[in-house]
Structure to design on (221 residues):
């Protein structure tokens, strides 16, 4: 189901896995990106409709965001992108103590591209800017998609920022101070019109979060 369109780029949201993770598939005439394949591999593959992703991008290492990763990479050969600080937990998920561990650790998968703050993931005319937003995990990232005019349009916030809330920080590698700093320095200054598509639950906007989210209030662009 398409949740939004940015220029020629369609964004579909699939709610997958045992704890309802949002998996996003971005498609255009020249590119395709999958963000957070958290489960239900057959559903993701069906939505791709024969397309091979140019990139599989992970916002963080927790098992509920990578459960279908190994199967998707094996089926498509698509390269995997993640922040370097979460690579260990993705390649060796049995060592991670994230929420998905109660369901069993997913199969480890090699990360092909180690991301850093300010990097870009480019697939045809799809370009995602990487914002380093640790706190939920040490290597948590958010991804910013701009419109054809180059203005920020959509934020994929992973488990850093939710509609009316923030991600947990009581799990292995979590830090409340880091997530506060991430939100207030990287996300809150974004334009009000930016749509927020989080890792779980409904979408929002920066304007709505500025009104309702205590960590966003008082921060001006």
């Amino acid at each position: 189901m398409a949740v939004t369109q940015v220029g020629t780029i369609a964004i579909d949201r699939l709610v997958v896995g045992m704890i309802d993770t949002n998996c996003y598939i971005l498609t255009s005439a020249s590119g395709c990106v999958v963000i957070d394949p958290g489960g239900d591999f057959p559903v993701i593959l069906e939505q791709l409709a024969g397309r091979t992703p140019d990139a599989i991008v992970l916002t963080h290492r927790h098992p509920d965001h990578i459960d279908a990763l190994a199967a998707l990479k094996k089926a498509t050969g698509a390269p995997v992108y993640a922040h370097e600080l979460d690579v260990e937990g993705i390649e060796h998920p049995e060592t991670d103590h994230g929420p998905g561990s109660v369901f069993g650790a997913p199969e480890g998968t090699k990360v092909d591209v180690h991301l850093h703050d300010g990097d870009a993931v480019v697939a045809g005319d799809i370009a995602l800017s990487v914002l380093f937003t640790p706190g939920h995990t040490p290597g948590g990232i958010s991804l910013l998609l701009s419109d054809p005019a180059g203005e920020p349009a959509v934020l994929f916030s992973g488990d850093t920022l939710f509609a009316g809330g923030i991600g947990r920080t009581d799990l292995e590698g979590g830090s409340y101070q880091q997530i506060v700093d991430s939100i207030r320095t990287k996300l809150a200054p974004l334009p009000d019109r930016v749509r927020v598509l989080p890792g779980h639950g409904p979408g929002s906007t920066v304007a709505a979060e500025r009104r309702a989210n205590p960590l966003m209030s008082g921060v001006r662009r």
Remarks:
- The longest strand covers residues 9-16.
